[in-house]
Amino acid sequence: MSAPAPHKSPRYVAWAVAAPGLEPLLEAELRTLGCADAEASPGGVRFSAKPEQLATANLQSRLASRIVVRLATFRATAFHELERAARKVEWGRMLGAGAQFQLRVTARKSRLYHTDAVAERVADAIVRVVPGAAPATDTDDDGDAESWLPAEMDAAAGHAGNVQRFQVRFEHDRCTISADSSGALLHRRGYRQAIARAPLRETLAAAMLAGVRHDPAQPLVDPFCGSGTLVIEAAMRARRMAPGLGRAFAAEAWPEGNVSVWAAARAEAESRILPRAAAPLEGSARDAGAIEAANANAQRAGVADDVRFRQRALSDLEVPATPGLCIANPPYGIRVGDRAPLRDLYARLGQVARTRLAGWRVALLSADRALDTHTGLRFTELLRTTNGGIPVRLVVAEIRG
């Protein structure tokens, strides 16, 4: 009797979703994480991954919004073709018996363009293939789930915290089905429970730091720190703390998943953590509530001893003697505050930079070139993206002594 064939570890075709403009930064990050074939294109980065690499990417990526893996691709121009092909998909690889699922369907230049009808056919295929599987809805994902399986199909399923998501994408009559490996969006590190006005998403804060090539050996200050996201992300980056260590991921629950793979990836990430940040990391704001929120978030993130938050006005800014990076997401005048006072605020920022930040770099997430000019600083644009739907630019200026 021959010995059983050795178990073959799956290899995934993966797609890391990125905010617009951040794709090159994410490609570079994934390459440093061992994904040598990472290749950026609009909307994200494609890469191949063994289970170990998929776990590492989810745990350690600071820039990706979500990571999905391709499950199937086929052509369908009629619903009977879709139904037949969908029943052949290996849903059981990612969906266990009795599990709940969501579908996010998009269609572009295809004969099967009615997304609700597509969702109904695919959902029917899943429940036929996976015993006890049932559709569910979940809108608690920062609006990212508005086009997942419609709520009317959830009458008998109820709500569950662990729901496997699948993306069904039609383009030019070709259907691609992908399974979400992340679960909750990856910007949810778990520490930001207290927020100030117009909060900065964690992945965008990390992208700002990557975009300006922040040197953890140099001081960093944020004079508009809000709930502290930029400073906290800088501290986590300086200490090499993987952003996903405090949370779970959808791929951990896959039937074909390997618990030991995720345990090893977490152990490796934990082994990289440095005991402390190498340089001062400080944030300030006028609002006492923002400072309270920032301190609470830093405590949850495990970097309270690495950062300092102080309530003070911009004109009272104090910085370490060693030159470093002043980085901020200042008010835009679009959602928070009036535009007229902002001209004075930006002018004051420029004055503070020229008088107190000699040898430093000043980086801003800017939504208005006109406001930039009021600083009197000569900015260079590093990248363009969006923040809460608002087009923004990351700009940097060198302050000469």
Write the H/E string, N to C: EHEEHEHEHEEEHEHHEHEEHEHEE
The mean pLDDT is: 91
Shape: elongated
Percentage of residues assigned to helices: 25-40%
Helix and strand composition category: alpha/beta
Number of E-state strands = 15
Strand order of the largest sheet: 2-3-1-4-8-7-5-6
First and last CA, distance: 80 Å
**Estimated radius of gyration:** 23 Å
Sheet-strand content, in percent, reads 15-25%
Number of helices: 10
- Poorly predicted regions are 1-6, 142-160
Report the major sheet: 8 strands, mixed
Please render the helix and strand layout as text:
Blueprint: E1 12-17, H1 23-32, E2 39-41, E3 44-49, H2 51-60, E4 66-75, H3 79-86, E5 100-108, H4 115-129, E6 134-135, E7 163-171, E8 174-180, H5 202-211, E9 220-222, H6 229-238, H7 259-271, E10 281-285, H8 288-301, E11 307-311, E12 325-328, H9 339-356, E13 361-366, H10 369-373, E14 380-387, E15 390-398
Parallel strand pairs: 5-6, 5-7, 9-10, 9-12, 10-11, 12-13
Antiparallel strand pairs: 1-3, 1-4, 2-3, 4-8, 7-8, 13-15, 14-15
Helix pairs in contact: 2-7, 3-4, 5-6
